[in-house]
Amino acid sequence: MLRLSSSTHASASTARRMPVCRGGVSTSSVGTSSRASAPTAVRSRRRLAHASASASAASPGDSPPSSSPRHVSLIQGASRGIGLEMVRQLLETPDAGLPGRPAAAGGHVVATCRDPANATALNELAAKHPHRLTVVKLDVESTRTIVDAAETVRNKLGRVDVLCQTAAVLHVDKPDFKMRPETSIARLDEAAALKAYRVNALGPTLVTKHFAGLLTEGTRLSLSESETSGGVQKNKHAIVANLSARVSSVGDNKLGGWHSYRASKTALNQLTVNCAIEFDSKRKKHPITFLLLHPGTVDTDLSTPFKKNVPAEKLFTTERAAAQLLQIVGAATHADTGKFFAWDGAEVPW
After folding, report:
1. Same domain for 79 and 34
2. 140-183 tens-digit pLDDT
3. What is the number of structural domains in the chain?
4. Are residues 91 and 220 located together in one domain of the fold?
5. DSSP class of residue 201?
6. Does some domain include residue 188?
7. Could you give the 3-state DSSP secondary structure of residue 254?
């Protein structure tokens, strides 16, 4: 079982009470201007007014980076649900639930989704945090968008330290395509099964393939930065955290059914473990850590048709689910690579 921190996240309100420097003008410079000569004081007031106006579009503390970020978190599937909440917490919760990665608290966040133009909540976060959040188009069913997204991140940021993959499909109800969890083999549909495999298993693995170089660079830079800063960064290896599900477990399967979803998540487990072996420290100079995570039953669109039968205490909000999963990612070390953890840190049987 992964040992998680018992401390709760520091509130965003605490961060807002801290003194901040906006637009490059500190509180001490305001006091100095009152003692300056008249022309200098006027110029100082004008600079202060201009700086305040410039800062009003961004949230407190969201100043332009002075150099390349020391930590980049990428959330794949970030337009809603757990992914969106992960982005929000990484930006607005000071500790960000990554206890072994202090650089993440002020690091850069990349949020990917299929349709950025219509991702309203995500774009609102981008407007609040223009210097810390980059929104990128990525559709796990389109290899071209995966390749383009990797190139965008490479050109802008040059590294990825944490990659959390949350996109998944369980049911679809569109005029031209229907998909439901099968309660019988008689209801197994070829198109639905192939879509489940593409979105839930192959898609995340292709993202890993095309972002592997950026993740390796994240490990290399983190190791180098840790040496120069006296080892402050505890967990130095880049991490890929793929959201799986308990129903993927063969050993825990007592109910049957849900053929396409179960099989696709089981395939994701196998592919993730394969990657963990390939990118292990025994084989690579700059290894990558791979985790599988079961978030529990979360109140999202994916669980909507089924949550009425879930006891209230077992139906997690996206806020709770995201916080729990980020805690696991932050606490994990390379010794945990290839493991499958539930939301409480307990290992899930294969």
Report:
1. no
2. 999 999 999 999 999 999 999 999 999 999 989 899 999 999 99
3. 2
4. yes
5. I
6. yes
7. coil
